[in-house]
Amino acid sequence: MFTRYLIKPGAPQWLWVLGVIGDFLLFGGILFAFLQAIPARFRRPFIVTLTFLAGLIYSVEFFWPADPKTQMNFLTPLRLKLGEATKVVYAFALGLGTYNLIRFHGSNLIRKRPGWHNNLAFFISFAAMMGVGFWAYYAPSSKAAANAYNMLFEGIVGALGATMFSTIGFYIVSAAYRAFRIRSGEATLMLLAAFIVMLGQVPVGAYLTSGIPSGGVLRNLRLENLSYWILSQPNMAAQRGIWFGIEIGALAMALRQWLSLERGSFFEREL
Amino acid sequence: MNIFERLQHIDRRIMYALLVVAIAAPLIWRINLPVVVTPAVRGVYDTFDKMPADKIALIVVYWGAGTVAETGPETAAMMRQLFMQNKKFALLPFDPQGSKFATDSAKALAKEYGKKYGIDWVHWGYQPISNLVPLLQSFPGNIKGTFRTDAYGTPMDKIPMMRNVNTLRDIGVVADITSSGELDTWIAYVQATYRDAKGRYRVPMVYGPTAIIAPEGFNALDAGQIQGMLMGMKGAAEYEKLLSAEGFATRAAGALSTSHLLIVVLIILGNIGYVMSRRRGEG
């Protein structure tokens, strides 16, 4: 906030970083000090009011008629600015996440709790990836840095990610074999739909029914067309039904949070 | 244990071994199977095809190594069509791995088609997914103010193809290629709400999900919120067919076929065992 007035455009990047951190500490500090200064019984109403006002900006902006010329209302510029400000706040979550990881793994490592070698692996991986990342970023012409980065990122992180995901395929085969049993009429119907979609979603389905003419009414019996129909009609209807339920639930949840009606361990804590 | 009980309790290690063979064999020995283009995939092709040349496409990359087999060919095929038709695009990754994979793919395709970075394509830089909503609220009205520099630190104003790209109105198509389900967020915060002095602008969108989340996309497809969709690797194979440029997806479609067939056969065997056991009063 103050940073943009104190630091001129074109100033070194580190100065901007310091400025933003300073802004955050200053405003965060003021808010924290204010909350500490006011009596405890006023803290909750203060936060409830602040939450309500913050939510009100978005709601009013959405419903307030827009100027026909600009297609914006008086709150639209503020909403856009808030979007940018929220981005900065979100960035701080990265620092908080890193701090939590270090605290958790560090504590286990120092106390040599069971599995402490996994905590050590975290610190080694973290340091290696961060060190090589900075090296590759600040020495873009260094081939050694690029190779080291590629080895860690593609050779280890990428390969581990792909391996983890690929193993799901084995579980799917095993689970599908055990789960799809024609125990009832509904289960049989589901099995038939699954067969059609499984085969229709791969080229072999088109091959198996390639004898059926690709024109006229009969083309609807080709596996790829049957599969597409199941996905785009019954599946879509069912998905919509599910989403209506989810969205109504989300709306209720959002209203409860906006109006600070939410109950639970966090929301009922003494402030 | 009789034969029917055995059919119901096939050792999972045998199933795993069969799956390895079912996937590996078609990748080694190619199987030519017919690839039929679905309307959803044609929609993707047509949307890029109709995009005005003075606008750019925005390719959103939210996938990593885990789903690269599906989403990688989808991304590559979209970039290929844009390069083939001399259209420009920007990459916007929300996954650090996807950022690297998509960049490598773009560089390889750019070399193939003689395209240059900054003139034909640009990388807007990796953005953490936790920033998605605030980013979607701020960038449509002010692209250069939100991103400021590209992935390599070059100010947006100094990138030739970005000179006239300022708001969402300068983007002709948004392609969301993802292994997660954030399409609704794009529709809610970008497509459905963007307005400026010229009025409302509903940016055309296409969707490139993994096969497992593709069924959710039919809602938006039916509602006209997305103009086309690639359903995982099969969708990518269909797209490659439309482009007459067979790539990894077309080759891997054979492996996909044999693995699906294997699952179907195993389920049938399990059910034969189940039904026969019940008939004999053993179930």
Task: State the main characteristics.
heterodimer; A: 271 residues; B: 283 residues; alpha/beta; Rossmann fold; 2 domains; six-stranded parallel β-sheet; 11 helices
| Count of DSSP H/I helices of chain B | 11
Q: Describe the main β-sheet of chain A briefly.
A: none
Query: What fraction of residues of chain A sit in β-strands?
Result: under 5%
Helix content of chain B: 40-55%
User: What is the terminal separation of chain A in angstroms?
Assistant: 28 Å
Task: Name the shape of chain B in a single word.
Answer: elongated
In short:
The complex is a heterodimer of chains A (271) and B (283). With 271 residues, chain A is mainly alpha-helical.
Could you characterize what this model shows?
The complex is a heterodimer of chains A (271) and B (283). Chain A is an all-alpha fold and 271 residues long. Chain A is 76% helix and 0% strand. Chain A has a domain at 180-260. Chain A is built from 10 helices and no strands. In chain A, helix 5 packs across helix 6. Chain B has 2 domains: 3-27 and 254-282; 39-230, Rossmann fold (3-Layer(aba) Sandwich). Helix content of chain B is 51%, strand content 12%. Chain B is built from 11 helices and 8 strands. Chain B has helices at 3-8, 12-28, 39-50, 68-84, 96-113, 132-138, 143-147, 183-191, 214-223, 232-242, 248-279; strands at residues 56-62, 88-93, 121-123, 171-178, 195-196, 199-200, 205-209, 228-229. In chain B, the strands form 2 sheets. A 6-stranded parallel sheet of chain B has the order 3-2-1-4-7-8, sandwiched between helices. In chain B, strand 7, helix 9 and strand 8 (228-229) form a beta-alpha-beta unit. The model of chain B has no long low-confidence stretch (mean pLDDT 92). At the A-B interface, helix 4, helix 6, helix 7, helix 8 and helix 9 of A face helix 2, helix 5, helix 6, strand 5 and strand 6 of B.
